[in-house]
Specification:
- Helix content is about 35%, strand content about 25%.
- With about 575 residues, it is α/β, with parallel strands linked by helices.
- The protein folds into 2 domains: about 270 residues, P-loop containing nucleotide triphosphate hydrolases (Rossmann fold), CATH 3.40.50; about 270 residues, Rossmann fold (3-Layer(aba) Sandwich), CATH 3.40.50.300.
- A hairpin with an 8-residue loop joins strand 4 and strand 5.
- Helix 4 packs across helix 5, helix 7 runs parallel beside helix 8 and helix 17 runs parallel beside helix 18.
- The longest helix has 18 residues.
- The chain is globular.
């Protein structure tokens, strides 16, 4: 391949990027993985094309193929990627075949960031932690354009202002870790727009964000697209987001395009069974699960609660520097009180930083409270205050109250087999050993829908949904009465998410479990929970039955949260009309 190869075939006037019959493969030691297999689509000026599909469908590899940033041993094996280049510094526009460029050539490096920019899913791993935000954006500008450092700095401040970063003159000299998740994503967008690209590729840019921050980022991208006239390629697995922002949709599965079309037509009349299944999964989460008992049957407020949280506070002390005194601490949870009814699922929702996870960890005795009480009353009728427990009595409490964590990739030991992972709590807390232990592990795996023969396999050999099932098996191994789920389904694809939620409902009925379900996804809470507590800045601002809170919210913050949830109907887009919450008296 040469660094200057061009093709002369014309593109339609509105098409900026045309992908035809793209094939990208990974040659492994034992076999070849066809990650992208004969994929074709076009990106048009001023339009957003959403590439949707579950994990492993080839969405991100398609994006990386366009920019030639594939990890080894990935290689483009066929097809064309034609880009209509913009005239630069007095030059001429033309049609360039990107597949004819060497991945390390000067020509493709000139394309990256200038004609095609990319926003990645996790800005913390994409931005340098040792350079200021401003230095990183300035470097990008000066790499592609002959401007002075002072000119690049002024442009960077303007970009930060355009992306609605507060006090851009000060923010330019801050580091990545000083920004919130939403602000980091805004900084990534500012960097992507620094050279006025024609094409913006956004790879799951809002997956890790709460609904209000997600809505702000999507609004920002829509506004900037209108200003710059860009073509946007938006990669996601959230069909609600697709319904809100897409003009065109490309559905991928196992490296192939199974369906493509205009968004209204595709949502109204999906042709492929896989597309139908994706849409059905989203619609299912719009209502309470059919597997759940009626709210009125579960919410018996007269019965003694299994868990009572009273005036709970958690404060993180400030860290003292070498030459400065410690700053004021962070009050993460403020005077939180509620009761968990035996057999119910209580949802805890709120934005990032609202205190949801800290509250869950404090109840599970992972993070001791600064003050307040967590009273647990088991089936034996004995009440205990978790804050007063230690040693053997605390271990006994931890057997009754278990936790399932958000990340099925990071919460399982990669050096242990699945059998060892599930057996570990049993080895430490029960007399089981030998064949009896193996049989119990096999029984637990079968309860969560995994066959006995997976016990000798390691976590890396499983999908995200299967890993979460292993985490659930481990959590129920000691016959708990309360399970705290900390964003247990947020890392999963929407179809896998409903499967895991259905599994938890089945286990709840079978084992008489009570759940505290921490989430930022209102749809998941509506589907799974009986009551919901809405948290903001460490406080519960609203608490009630899910049906009431989701249909007639009372607090202005709850109204803002609900109005920011994407509507899975492209003809009834409402996110841009959402309520904005402002502090009382602000």
């Amino acid at each position: 391949m040469t660094a200057t190869a061009k093709i002369t075939a014309a593109l339609p006037e509105d098409v900026i990027l045309d992908v035809r019959n793209l094939r990208t493969q990974f040659a492994l030691r034992t076999h070849v993985v066809k990650a992208v297999d004969d994929v074709s689509f076009a990106l048009r000026r001023g339009r957003t094309t959403c590439i949707v599909g579950e994990s492993g469908s080839g969405k991100s590899i398609t994006a990386r193929s366009i920019l030639q940033i594939l990890d080894a041993p990935g290689e483009i094996k066929g097809g064309t990627i034609r880009l209509r280049t913009a005239p630069r510094a007095g030059g001429h526009s033309g049609v360039l075949d990107l597949t004819a460029l060497h991945p390390r050539s000067k020509a493709i490096r000139a394309i990256r960031g200038r004609d095609i920019a990319m926003i990645f899913q996790e800005p913390m791993s994409s931005l340098s932690p040792v350079h200021t935000i401003g230095d990183q954006i300035i470097e990008t500008i000066r790499l592609h354009e002959k401007v002075s450092k002072a000119e690049a700095r002024e442009r960077t401040i303007e970009l930060l202002r355009r992306t609605e970063i507060h006090e851009p003159e000060k923010a330019i000299d801050r580091y990545t870790f000083e920004f919130s998740g939403g602000m980091r994503q805004r900084a990534m967008i500012a960097m992507a727009l620094s050279c006025n690209p024609q094409v913006l590729i956004a790879d799951e840019p809002t997956t890790a964000l709460d609904v209000t921050t997600q809505a702000e980022i999507l609004d920002l991208m829509r506004e900037l697209q209108t200003s710059y006239g860009m073509a946007i390629m938006f990669i996601t697995h959230d069909m609600g987001v697709v319904a809100e922002i897409a003009d065109d949709v490309v559905v991928m599965r196992h490296g192939k395009v199974v369906e493509a079309g205009e968004v209204n037509e595709l949502f109204e009349n999906p042709q492929h069974p896989y597309t139908q299944a994706l849409l059905d999964s989203v619609i299912r989460l719009e209502n309470r699960s059919a597997l759940k008992k009626p709210e009125a049957e579960v919410l018996n407020l007269e019965a003694p609660p299994i868990l009572s949280v009273e005036a709970l506070n958690v404060t993180f002390p400030g860290k003292r520097g070498l030459f400065r005194k410690a700053p004021a601490g962070v009050h993460a949870v403020r005077d939180v009180s509620f009761e968990l009814i035996r057999g119910e699922s209580l949802g805890i929702v709120g934005e990032s930083g609202s205190g949801k996870t800290t509250l869950g960890r404090s109840i599970a005795s992972v993070r001791p409270p600064s003050s307040g009480q967590v009273r647990y009353q088991g089936t034996d009728g004995i009440k205990v205050d978790m804050a007063d427990l230690s040693g053997a009595t605390l271990n006994q409490y931890r057997r009754r109250v278990r936790m399932i964590f958000q990340d099925p990739y990071g919460s399982l030991n990669p050096r242990m087999t699945v059998g060892q992972i599930v057996a570990e709590p049993l080895r430490n807390n029960s007399p089981l050993s030998g064949n009896a232990l193996q049989d119990k592990v096999a029984e637990l795996l079968e309860q969560v829908g995994l066959p006995r023969d997976v016990m000798e396999r390691y976590p890396h050999a499983f999908s995200g949904g299967q890993r979460q099932r292993v985490g659930i098996a481990r959590a129920i191994a000691l016959d708990p009465e309360v399970v705290i789920c900390d964003e247990a389904t947020s890392a999963l694809d929407v179809s896998i998410r409903s499967q895991v939620l259905d599994l938890l409902i089945e286990l709840q009925d079978k084992l008489n479990l009570s759940f505290i379900f921490i989430a930022h996804d209102i749809g998941v809470v509506r589907y799974f929970c009986d009551r919901v507590a809405v948290m903001r800045k460490g406080e519960i601002v609203e608490l009630g039955p899910v049906s009431e809170v989701c249909s007639t919210p009372r607090h202005a913050y709850t109204k803002a949260l609900l109005s920011a949830v994407p509507n899975p109907d492209p003809k009834a887009r409402s996110m841009h009309l959402r309520n904005r919450y402002s502090e009382p008296g602000g």
